[in-house]
Amino acid sequence: MGLFSKLASLLGFKRKEASILVVGLDNSGKSTIINHFKSEEDKTIDIVPTVGLNVEKFKVKSLGFIAFDMSGQGRYRNLWEHYYQDVNGIIFVVDSSDSLRIIVAKDELDMMLQHKDIKDRNIPILFFANKMDLREALSSVKVSQALGLDNMKSKSWHICASNALTGEGLQEGVEWITDQLKYMVEQNKR
Amino acid sequence: THLLSEHTVIDLPTGVVAFQMDTCDPKVSAIAVASGGHIYVYKNMRPFYKFTLPTLNIEPAELEVWNQAKEDKIDMSSMKEVLESIRTEVGESNLSSRSQRFLMLEPEELEEFVHVHKQFPLKRQTVVTCLSTMKKSMAEDDAVSCLVLGTENKDVYVLEPDAFTILAAMTVPSVPAFLNVTGLFDVEYRIIVACRDGILYTLKRGFKTGRLCVELLSQPVGLLRVKNTVVVGCMDQTLSCFSMKGRNLWTIKLESSIVAMETIDITYLGIQLIVIALSNGLIQLYQDKYLVDVVPAEDVVTGIKFGRYGREENTLIMTTRGGGLIIKILKRTAKFDPKNLTPGPPAAQHMKLSVPKKTKLFVDQTMHERENAVRMHRSFQHDLYRLRLNTARSYVKVLTSSLTPVSTGGSDPLKLSAQIQGLGPVFRLRLEIQNTSTDKPSTNLFFTFHCDVRIYRVDKTFIPIPFLAPGLLYSSATKVECVSELGISDVIKVFVLRENEGVPLITAIINMPISEGMMSSY
Ligand SMILES: Nc1nc2c(ncn2[C@@H]2O[C@H](COP(=O)(O)OP(=O)(O)OP(=O)(O)O)[C@@H](O)[C@H]2O)c(=O)[nH]1
Ligand SMILES: [Mg+2]
């Protein structure tokens, strides 16, 4: 409960910030998505593959976010789990045009869900089926099937098809996670 | 994934490799396909170049025959005769393919065959049997590499990647079937050639001919380089590992024959595995000689490649006999642990036995055995028959007189054991008798003894056994005194008889010990 009361105080009164973890395979578009939410002056023009991780801050609907933009490369993926403990929400980005590696994404997701810091907590997970503009992209329904999201009963989740280059779909997704976080805070206040 | 493009190759392809042709940007790999006497090079999915193997010298006599044929100066039967004699002289494989074909035809087909072909110049062409690549001067992944190929004519060529000229030509004593290349062409390289006759040769920079490395017991079906060793899969379902010097490090027997093999180099784990596709549809992964993993495939896998595929570093790509393509990506958390799976051969197999030096006696004996082998065998056989005869005789005797301590047949299956206790002159003879049947008791039996009365006196010469329940052990005892003063020993026979019957059911013969008390007391 300690965490939630802390979060409540953070969100409800003081600094209004929620920390979220952004994970997904390399090249899925995580950094591009976060870049989209940043204010005009903070935006970077060219996005290079992330090394290790980047910490970014942005605001949606008066809620401040601290986003941990993790690198998705195989050799950095073991860093993800170190942040599981302290996050309020997770954004999982999938390159929906990379149907071959969706199985790898599922594998990483399953490992994350089995992790001791995630398993028994009700953390909202937002999925972006990114790169929906590409011709060979799978629909969000297909992606959720491939990831086996229907079997994930213990967490509240939501999936959006997105295009990080134009920003399509991103707003909807982030609004969902904002509502989830706010709702949780309400619950804990009572 | 989907089929990107399809090209038809005229002849059966015998080798496919991807290689870097030049240093121009963007770095596009070219694909070389060996087929017949040519190598077709494709770039950007389009045919790019066709390399043809150099033609070989033709026997002058053979050329002469075909020249005559061109001018119609020779008839078919004599032409056939001449070609046949050339064939016996130089061997089938040194004839041009046209002559080979000619000699295979039926007499009535000859005329037409010659008519069709005689206009064209006679060529002798060899075919590519295997294809590989070698980095030219730099070891980077995208550095320019040369093509290395083996031919039916027992040659190994290294081709220049840009102009396709032959940079180096070497020969091996038999037809190459597999090539394995390490090193750089401009610096130092080593090519291991597995030949069709089961012999491995090594070729080095600057040498024209191959050096014999290993003679296999069977034909090779795959050749790999793992660290500093050579791993060869053979037709006899074995996987063997050799040092570069040709010493056999280990050999394992597989459950099925090998169809394809490949090395798996997992850099972040720092291990190299051997993956083998078996004809029973299993994919086995070995670390050295230890099986670390088995993956079932839906179909027999005929081709395996391991490496980077797109963004995934460790991908295993397999083609199956039915034309399928399987892509497997190594899990990030995968660990290969040989201990929890069945190990290879036991360690004892590799222990050196300390064989002692041959002594003079041993050598003499060997010589003797070698010279008199027949006689020795005969006398051995003779003695063996004697032994058998003696055994048979004793057996018959035993059977007829019931001299055994165990009676099996008949109405009373009994077991008798006797024991002598004491040092003498007075002994105690303990007898144990058991009815070994399951349900039939024996009645009205008794023990009696037979001995030389001058030596032994038995206290109770008659011990009745009125009833023997099945399975139970009955014991009784009697005193036996040695009455002789000569310090000799004899046998005492113990009989088990049934009242009113003359033949004993069983007999035990006891070899008495020498009475020790004798010497002192009396
Ligand atoms: N067509 C298309 N391209 C996209 C989209 N989102 C991202 N990309 C491109 O995908 C590439 C990778 O994007 P990144 O944001 O660097 O991916 P990442 O997930 O942060 O990758 P790592 O940091 O290596 O884990 C970039 O070239 C982006 O321009 C999309 O929605 N559509
Ligand atoms: Mg990134």
From TrEMBL, chain A:
SUPFAM superfamilies: P-loop containing nucleoside triphosphate hydrolases (SSF52540). Its main location: cytoplasm. It is found in: Cytoplasm. Pfam families: Arf. Keywords: Cytoplasm, GTP-binding, Lipoprotein, Myristate, Nucleotide-binding. It comes from the Eukaryota. InterPro entries: Arl6 (IPR041839), P-loop_NTPase (IPR027417), Small_GTP-bd (IPR005225), Small_GTPase_ARF (IPR024156), Small_GTPase_ARF/SAR (IPR006689). Belongs to the small GTPase superfamily. Arf family. This is ADP-ribosylation factor-like protein 6. It comes from Limulus polyphemus (Atlantic horseshoe crab).
UniProtKB/TrEMBL annotation, chain B:
Residues 414-515 form the Bardet-Biedl syndrome 1 protein GAE domain. Pfam families: BBS1, GAE_BBS1. Residues 1-204 form the Bardet-Biedl syndrome 1 N-terminal domain. This is Bardet-Biedl syndrome 1 protein homolog. It comes from Limulus polyphemus.
